[in-house]
Amino acid sequence: MIESFVFGDVLPTGVFKLHSRFRRVSNFSSVDGDMVFVTDDPMLMAGQGIQVATNILLVSEAVSITKESVTIGDRIIHRKDHPVYTSYVSFEGLDFNDFETRLIQLPEDRGYLFPDDSLLYVLDPARCRFVSGAFERKLADQILDGAEHLRTGRMEKGVALLSGAGKGLTPSGDDFLAGLLYAMHYLGFKNRLCMDTQARQLFDISKGNNLLVNSFLWHAMNYNYFQTLKNFVYSCTRCGCGYRALIDLLSVGATSGADLLTGYIFGIQYRIGI
Amino acid sequence: MSANQLFRQPLKVINTGIVTFKEDLHRLGVDVVQVNWKPPVDMDASVLQWLKENRGKIDKANREALDIILGGKPFLVGMGKALDTIPGMKQNLILHSGPPVTWDRMCGPTRGAILGALLYEGLAGSIGEAEALASSGEIVYAPCHEHASVGPMAGVISASMPVFIVKNEAHGNYAYCTMNEGLGKVLRYGAYGTEVIGKLRWMERVLYPVLKAGVEKLGGIDLKNIIAQALHMGDEVHNRNRAATSLLYRILAPAVVDAAESSAAAIDVLDFINGNDHFFLNLSMPAAKCCLDSARDIPYSSIVVVMARNGTDFGVQLAGTGGLWFTGEAPVPDALFFPGYSMADANRDIGDSSITETVGLGGFAIAAAPAIVQFVGGKAADAVQYTMDMYEITAGENNVYQIPYLNFRGTPTGIDVRKVIEKSITPFIDTGVAHREPGIGQVGAGVLSAPVEPFKKALKGLKTVCEKDPKK
Amino acid sequence: MTTQGIIKQGVYYDSVTLMTVTQRINALEGIVDSSVVMGTRENKAILESAGLFVSDFADASDTDLLISVQAENSTFAQNAMARLEMILKDISSSEGSHRRDTARSIHDAVERLEGSNLSLISIAGRYAVAEVRKALDLGLHVMLFSDNVPIEDEKRLKEEARDRGLLLMGPDCGTAIINGVPLAFANAVQRGNIGIVAASGTGLQEVSCIISNRGAGISQALGTGGRDVKKEIGGIMFIEAMKALFEDERTQCIVLISKPPDDEVLSLIAKEISRTDKPVVAMFIGANSEKVGQAGALPAHSLSEAALLAVQLSLGKPVEDVRAMLKSIHDEVGSLAKKLSPGVKGRYVRGLFSGGTLCHEAQLILKEHIGHVYSNVPLDPDYLLSASGEGSFHSLIDMGDDAFTAGRPHPMIDFSQRCKRIQEEAKNPETVIVLFDLVLGYGAHVSPLDEILPAVTAARRHSPDLLFICSVTGTDDDPQNRQAVTESLRESGVIVMMSNYSAALLTGHIIKNITS
User: Fold this and answer.
1) Is B49 a domain residue?
2) Which of B396, C11, C122, C301 has its CA 20 to 30 A from that of C177?
3) Chain A residue closest to B251 (CA)?
4) What's B458's domain CATH number?
C-alpha cells in the first residue's frame, strides 16, 4: 500500500476500541484503560500515536497492536516497514541557565500570545483581569490557592486543588499538572536526581476515571513528549527564539497547550518536587 | 419576543428581496444578512403535503441510505472482458451513458462511439455498414447504469472491451468501467477513426493483460483511500485526476514491471498511464457507483443514487424508487472552450461521470481543487462557494472525503431531492464538453447546474412509488 | 434569576468546541453566565461555589460534560438549553464554514446572524406568504414590503403574528422606523418620544420628516399596510401597533395616520385610544373625526397639523398654539400667492405625485379652496379621471398607482413617467401650475435632481410662465440632503414649499386668485 505510517515509540499492545473521534484524531481504548490514537496531522503525533497519511483510517472502529503489526480497521501494517516517532527528549549538553532564563522570561515576553482564559495568571497576576464569569473566578481562586500550596512545598494539597479543576476536555488544572510532570523531568536531569517517586505521587493523586486525562498524565509522568511539546523544548534549548514552536504549542486545544506550558514554567521556576 | 422586547434590542435584520435595502442598512451600521432568495420550484401541493406527512419515514430512510453510501469500501479487485464480467452483457448489446435512449434520439457523440464500437467488435467492416447495422434493430442498447456499469462521456461499452472490476467490500456488490483512453480523438467523445480503433485494440492487447496481472498480483487496490488522499492533493476526481492517477501509478508501477512480459511492454503501459491525467477517472466513477448502488431499494429514501446524461436527456434515480428513471432535457454546459470552438459546437451534457458528484466528489468537492478554478470563474472563492452551496442540498457530510481549506470538513454527500426542490438549488457538476458532431472529440471543459426537471419528476415519482406499495 | 443544567454522558468534544459553546450560549438573550466543563469532583465543587450547580450534577462522573446556564428567568434558560444541540451541531460544521455575506435561506440567515429579530421581505407577493410564515415561525417580526398578497393570506398571517406577539407590518408596507433605524423607504429622522402608527407610507414619511425638521423626534414608526384598516383585516396590526406604543416607555405621544378606516375598525381604534393616558393625535385623512375625538384623541385635518400637534406634545408645549402656527402658514402662503398670481397663463393645476397619501391630502386641501379636483384616486368617484389619466380640468395624479407602475419601479425611484408627463403638461396651454412632490430618504432615488431638473428646465424653456410648485419630504440627514435638493430646485425656478400641505395650499390660493 502506498500510505506511509509513523508509529509512536511507546505504543501499548492489545486490542483497542474507538473511544472518541475528533476531526483529525481518533482515540482508541483497551479494556485495561490503555489508550492509543490515530491521526493524520503530524503535529499531533505522540508516543502513543499512529500517524497515517490518509484520514480514511480515522473512521475505523478498532485498532489492534502487536509487537510486529498494527491493524487499523481491516488494514494490517507491518511495523518494521515504517518509521518510529521518538517521544524522548534529551537535555544532554544543555545550557541550563540560558534555558531557564528564557522560560522564566516567557510570560513577560510572550504572554500576549497566550489565550485570555489560560492559567498564565499563576505566573503573571496582572492577567487576573482577563478572568470573567462566576465559574472562572472561583476557578482562579482555587488554582492560585493550589499553586501557592505547591510553591510552599505542600504538594499533596496543591495537586488536590488543581487536579480536575477547570474547563476543557482535559481540565486546565490537569494540563497544568502535566506541565509540572514534564518540569520534573528537566529538574531531575539537571540536578541528577531521580524524581520518579514525586512524579508517581503526583499522578496517583490526580488520576480519575477519564481515560483521556489519565493517559495524558501517564505519558507526562513517563516523560513521553508529544510532537509540539518536543519541538518547543528543543527550540528553547537549541534553536533560538522558538516563536513558531511556541505558537504551535499554544494552539493545542483551547488552552491546553498554554496551561501545560504554564505548569512547566512554574515547575522549573519554583523547583517543584525538589 | 414581543414588539416591546424588539424596541429594547439592537435591530438585526434579515433582508429577503431588494438588495439596496440591505446596503442602506449596512451603511447605517445595522447588522443585516441578505437572503439570496430564489423562487421555489413549482411543485404540486399534494406532493408537498405528502412529504410533510412522511417526513419521519423519509428522514429515517435517508439516514440508512447515507450510512450505506458512507460505509462503502470500493476496491479495484480485477479486470475482465465485458462479455465475461458485466451482468447481462451480450454480443449484440451496447451499453451507453445516461438514461435509456433510442438510436433516433441519440446525440452525435453517442452515435459516433457506437459506430466505433461496431467497427472495433468487427461487426461492421465500414462506417456505412456500421450505420446500417446500428439502426437495424439487431443491436440492442441499454444504459451502463442498468448493468452495474458506468462510462464517461458517451460511455459506450461493447462485448470485448476490457473493464475494471470494482468491488464494494462492505456490501459485496460490483461496478464496472472501461479503461480511460486519454485525450484527443477518443471513442468516448464519439470519435471512430482508424487511430481510435487502433488505440482500443492496443489497450485490449497490451495494456489490459499487463494491468490485469498487475492488479491480481497486488490483490486489490483501496480506491477510497486514494481518493481521500487525492482530495488533499488538489483533485476532485472528476475534472482533475492528476494526483489520484499519480498515486495509482505509484502502486501499479512495480506490479506492472513484474507482470509485463518485456520491459518494452512495461514501459508502454507505464507511459500510457503516466501520460493520461484522467486515467483514474475510470476508477473514481465505478468506486462511486458501487457505493451508491448498495444504497438502492430503500423504501421512502429521497437520496439520489444516479445522476447521468446521455447527451440528450439528464436522468436521475433515487434510492427509494427502484429502477425508475426520471429525466429532463440535458443542458449545454457553460464551458471553457478549446481554441477554435464555441458553445455552438457543444453537445448537450453527456456522460455517467456525474456519479462522482452523486457520491460527494467532483463539483461537490471543487473547493478541494484550486487548480481547476478557471472552470468556475477563476477565483478560489467561487469554488468554495459552489461546495458550500452543495451542503444545502445534501443529507450529510462525508466521513472520509475532506476539504482541507474548509478545515477538513467532509464533502457534501447524499443529494436529498427534497432539498433540491425546496431550496431550488440543483446539483453542481463538473464536466467535459463533446463536439455535437460524431468523430471530432472534446471541445472544452466546464461546469453546469443540473436541470431541475428530473428532480421534480423524481420527487413526484417517490410519492407514487411509496403510495403504490404502502406496506413498505 | 435561575440556574439550569444538563449532563451529556459519554460524548467527547474537543476543547475548542467546548469553549465556543460557552461563548455562543453567553451571547443568547437573557443569559447571565454559563459554564461547560467536565464533571470532575473539583469542577463540581467550583460550580457549587459559583452558583452554577444543579442537583442533577451530583451523580455525574469526570467523563461527563456538565453544561449549566444562569439566566434572567427560566424561559431564557430553557431557550438556551433548547439551542444547545443546534449550537453543538453548528460548531462542528461551521468550524469548516466559509463565511458568506449572503444566506441561502432565511433559516441559514438566522444561523448566521445571532439575535436577528426582524425580517424585511420584498420579493414578489405570490411568494411572500411562504417567507412570512417562515419568519414568524422563527419568531421574527416582519416588515412585508411586497404587495399583491391575497387579502385572506394577509388576514391569516396577521392573526398568527398577533397570537405570537409579533409585528407584521404590511403587505405593501413601504416604510417604518424601528429603534431609530429607517427601513425600506424611510427618512433619517431624529430619535425622540413620538410614536407613529400608519396605514399610509408617504403619510408616515411626511409626518416623521416634519416632526424631525421641527426639532422633535420619533421613538418608533410602525407601518401596517393600507389594507389593515379595511373591514376584511379589521385593523389587527393597527391595534397591535398602538398597544405596543402605549406600552413603550420611550414613546410619550402617538400619531395615528391612515386613509379613512372602515367604520367598525374606527370604533376599535377609538376604543383602544380611550384606554391610554398617552396623548394621541389622529389623522384619518378625510374621515369623520368625531369618534376618535370622543375617545380622547386630538383630530388633525392634515399631515402637517398632525405633525405640529405631536411636536407640541412632545416638547410639552400647549397644543392650542398649533392653530396660530397654521394661521401663520396660511398668511405666508396667502401673500406668496398674491405675489405669484399676476402674469400667469392658463387655468388648471396638474398635480403629479409619487406619494399616494400626499396626493390624497392635496385633494382635500384643494377641495376646501377650489372644490373637487379630478384624480385617478379621487375623493369622490364622480371625479375619476379617464383611464389614460389625460389631464382635464384640475387634476391630481397618483403616479404610484398600479396603472402607472405596472412593470415599472415606483415613481420615487423611476422618474421617467413623471418627467414625460411634465413635458406634456407644459405644452398644454391650459396648465397654470405643475404641482409635484419629491420624497427623499433611504430607498428613494439617490439623486432625484438629475432626473427632475432637466425636465423642469426644458418645460420652463417651452412655457416660461408656468409655475412649478413642489414639496420636499425629507430631512437634511437623508442621503440626498433636503436642503441641497431644495436649493437646487429653487435655483431652477421651482417654488419649494416646506410641506405637502403648504404646497397644496399655495396652489389653491393661486387658482382662487386667478378665477376670482
Assistant:
1) yes
2) C301
3) A2
4) 3.90.1700.10
From chain A, the residues in CB contact with B247 under 8 A are 2
* For testing contact with chain C, the best of B35, B43, B424 (most C CBs within 10 A): B35
Q: Which three cell numbers stand for residue C476?
A: 437634511
Q: pTM of the predicted model, to two decimals?
A: 0.72
Residues of A with CB below 8 A from C21's CB? none
Total domains in the fold of chain B: 2
Q: What is the CATH number of domain C325-515?
A: 3.40.50.261
Q: Is B389 an 8 Å CB contact of chain C?
A: yes
Comparing C-alpha atoms, which of B462, B446, B465 is closest to residue B454? B462
Cα Rg of chain B (Å, integer): 23
Chain B contact present for C94, CB below 8 A: no
Selecting from B10, B17, B36 the residue whose C-beta is nearest the C-beta of C103 gives: B36
- Distance, CA of B114 to CA of C45 (rounded, Å): 77
**Is C248 part of the contact surface with chain B (CB cutoff 8 Å)?**
yes
Residue A23 to residue B408, Cβ atoms within 8 A? yes
Q: What's the gap in Å between the CA of B237 and the closest CA on chain A?
A: 16
**Residue type at B146?**
E
CB-based contact C102 B33, cutoff 8 Å? yes
CA distance C81 to C68: 9
The reply to whether A213 and A154 lie within a common domain is: yes
Residues 6+ apart with CB under 8 A from C242: C197, C254, C256, C269, C272, C273
The answer to the question of residue B344 being in a domain is yes
CATH superfamily of domain region C173-319:
Succinyl-CoA synthetase domains (3.40.50.261)
As a whole number of Å, the end-to-end CA separation of chain A is: 50
One domain for residues B358 and B381 = yes
CA atoms within 13 A on the CB side of B93: 14
Range of the domain at B336: 45-69+294-468
Judgement on whether residues A50 and A121 belong to the same structural domain of the protein: no
Distance from CA of B238 to the nearest CA of A (A): 20
Residue of chain A whose alpha carbon sits nearest to that of B406: A23
DSSP C384: B
Contact C4, C33 (CB under 8 A): no
Comparing C173-319 with C325-515, is the CATH topology the same?
A: yes
CB pairs under 8 A between A and C: 96
Q: Which domain holds residue A53?
A: 5-85
What was the ipTM of the complex prediction?
Answer: 0.86
**B neighbours by CB contacts (3+ pairs under 8 Å):** A, C
> Measured in whole angstroms, how far is the alpha carbon of residue C298 from the centre of its chain?
22
Nearest chain C residue to A166 by CA: give it: C43
Give the C-alpha separation, C261 to C227, whole Å: 9
Specify whether the backbone of C85 is left (phi greater than 0), alpha (psi in -120 to 50) or beta. alpha
- H or E segment and range at residue C506: helix C500-515
Query: What are the pLDDT tens digits along chain B (472 aa)?
Result: 789 999 999 999 999 998 889 989 988 889 999 998 878 788 888 999 999 999 999 999 999 999 999 999 999 999 999 999 999 999 999 999 999 999 999 999 999 999 999 999 999 999 999 999 999 999 999 999 999 999 999 999 999 999 999 999 999 999 999 999 998 789 999 989 899 999 999 999 999 999 999 999 999 999 999 999 999 999 999 999 999 999 999 999 999 999 999 999 999 999 999 999 999 999 999 999 999 999 999 999 999 999 999 999 999 999 999 999 999 999 998 788 888 888 889 999 999 999 999 999 999 999 999 888 877 777 788 888 899 999 989 999 999 999 999 988 999 999 999 999 988 899 999 998 999 988 788 888 888 999 999 999 999 999 999 998 755 4
- Do residue B65 and residue B7 come from a single domain? no
Instruction: Please give the tally of structural domains in chain A.
Output: 2
Which residues on B lie below 8 Å from C105 (Cβ)? 35, 37, 392, 423
Nearest CA in chain B to A75: B222
